[in-house]
Amino acid sequence: MQIFLGLGMLPRMDPREEQRTWLAQVLAHTGMAPTAIAIKAGLAPTTLTRFVNNPGHATALSARTIASIERISGLRYGATAPQRGLSEAEATAWESSGASGQMAEQISKLAIASNSVSVWQLKSRALETIGYMPGDILMVDLNEPPKRGDIVCAQLYDWHRMKAETVFRLYEPPYLLAASADRAMLQPRLIDHSIAVKGPVILSIRPRHQEA
Fold first, then answer.
1. What is the dihedral of CA 198, 203, 209, 211, to 10 degrees?
2. Can you give the residue range of the structural domain that contains 192?
């Protein structure tokens, strides 16, 4: 699904800066690293890593490169990803740069080994009664179709307010279900056009307190 959301009347900037802004939105939207995006789009990894890591890089991304990234991300160049609501995020993309220790190194290696893996850190108690707690690190396979009973990563879109929220729920089609002691979270969510199921959780890790 492609997402079309206008930027509005903004001052024109250097095309390379526009592309970097859009690419940052793609990375946040997909939860994937530049190398993983490039490989999935059929591009040489250096096409994106040099562009991202070197602000002085003289060459802008080509139309072919942009089209390839649009195809695999669903986020059109010149559009912005829906913004998260004002409520506290239920899950956030895990940042290897902000972590340290042996556990962080192992997670980074696992993510790099498969370009279809997205790594998240759970922030809510939506799945607490089946053993998933705030702070747990969840690895999601974006290429694996979910099966009934899987824990899945999903994005909930509010197209009217142009917002989105990433959540983790129990996959029981046609619904996504929470498993929480908080009764306010137990309302089933019908899987419709406003919900994109990204993939199942294939591994969960609970950090030690000193690494969390």
1. -80
2. 91-205
Residue 41 lies in a domain: yes
Angle between helices 45-53 and 15-30 (to 10 degrees): 110
Residues 118 and 93 sit within 8 Å (Cβ to Cβ)? yes
The DSSP symbol for 97 reads G
Number of domains within the chain: 2
What whole-number distance in Å separates Cα of residue 70 and Cα of residue 151? 27
How much is the pTM?
A: 0.56
The series of mean pLDDT values per 10 residues for the chain, 212 residues long, is 34 65 76 84 87 73 88 74 51 65 68 74 93 92 93 80 80 95 88 87 79 40
CATH number at 189 reads 2.10.109.10
Query: Would you tell me how many other CB atoms lie within 10 Å of the CB of residue 14?
Result: 9
Residue that is last in its domain, among 73, 101, 116:
73
Q: How far is CA 12 from CA 9, 22, 62, in A?
A: 9, 14, 19
